[in-house]
Structures are given as C-alpha cells and as structure tokens.
Amino acid sequence: MPTTREEFGFSTPGAQPTPSTHIAARPCANEASDSNNAGDATHPSTEALWDDALSRGAPLYATATDDAHHYDDAAEARARGEEVFTGDRGFVMVRSRERTLDAIRAAIERSDFYASNGVVLDDVQRTDGTLHVTVAPSTDSPTIAFIGRGGRELERISARTASYRARADDYVRATVTDRAGRKAWTQPVRATREAR
User: Fold this and answer.
1) How far apart are CA 6 and CA 159, in angstroms?
2) Selecting from 2.60.40.10, 3.40.50.300, 3.10.450.50, 3.40.50.1400, what CATH number does the domain 4-195 have?
3) Degrees, nearest 5: CA angle 66-71-73
C-alpha cells in the first residue's frame, strides 16, 4: 500500500509499509504556514497523493493537522515577533458515543471520522457503496464535491445534503468547501459487490 512522507514542506511518494493492524492515514491538510498542501508545478497536492493511493486500492484515510506549537505561550511568542502556531486550524471529527480513549480509537479504526480545517459536518454515512453527507448549518454556502478514481470530480453540488454511489471498481469521497475556502474531507467508500 503506498504511503507518503513529508519532505521540505512537500508531500512526496514514500516506501511500501509492512502490513499491520494499524490504520494508514495522512494529512490532507497540514495547516502550518510553511506546508504546501496545494503542491506546485513539480509537486502534487496532498489530495492528489491521497487519490493516487486510493486509486491503487490502498485503505488510506485523510486527516488534518494544525502543527500547533504554542498554547499558553502564544501571546509571549507574538510579542517576541515570532510566527505563532496555535491549534484548531486542522483537526479530525470522530463519531463516538463516549469521550474515552478506547471509544475514540475504535471509531478511528473503523474510519468513522472526517478531516477538516474549519468546515463542520452534521453527518457522514458510508453504506452499501454510497456516501451520504450532511453539512452543519454553521457552514456558510457549502459546496460538496464527490471525488473518484484518479481524483476525478464526479459531481459538484451547492447544498447541505448530498449522496453519491460509487461506481464499479471505484471509490467515492467528498470534499466540502465553504465560502471562505475552508474544507472538510470525508473518508472514502468503495463500491459494493452489487455495484460491480
């Protein structure tokens, strides 16, 4: 299964890991100021790398991180003229009935979470090869883009609720974008045998 590694602020293809019981995840968004999530002319975006791995059949899940370094000392760091890295700029939202380590870990292991740098979703359901997305009312002017094999956009809709069924031998995931350009990324769902 393909993985990636961070190299000089760009995500680049990495080595094949040894299979294990751990999940494989990578940031779709590292919200540090020096991260190059969008890529450039010679480096693919983090989303393109994720879609490449998914297209090869890898069970790879998206995360978002804020690369926080400053908590209680943010004001002092700003006063010294330093760039401050605070939290809440990249995160995952986990569906769990309890706020316990075991319950949260179980939700992550079943990929019942989404990544975000500000967009909040009310619900994500991945059933029988279909992805259902419901965007929270707090998200301003959401656009839901359904993405499939090779990063191809399958459908784009301006709505709070949308669904898309994965086609045979394909996956579907969603990127939800708000008016300010913030995003949320759902985990992919694969086509079921019935869709094949």
Assistant:
1) 34
2) 2.60.40.10
3) 135
> How many CA atoms, within 13 angstroms, populate the side-chain half-sphere of residue 92?
22
pTM, rounded to two decimals: 0.79
| CA dihedral angle for residue 136, residue 141, residue 143, residue 144, rounded to 10 degrees | 10
- What is the three-state SS of 126-174? EECCEEEEEECCCCCCCEEEEEEHHHEEEEEECCCEEEEECCCCCEEEE
pLDDT tens across 60-109, in order? 888 888 777 777 888 898 999 988 877 777 888 999 888 888 898 889 88
Strand bridging mode 24-30 / 60-65: parallel
Residue with tokens 């995003």: 183
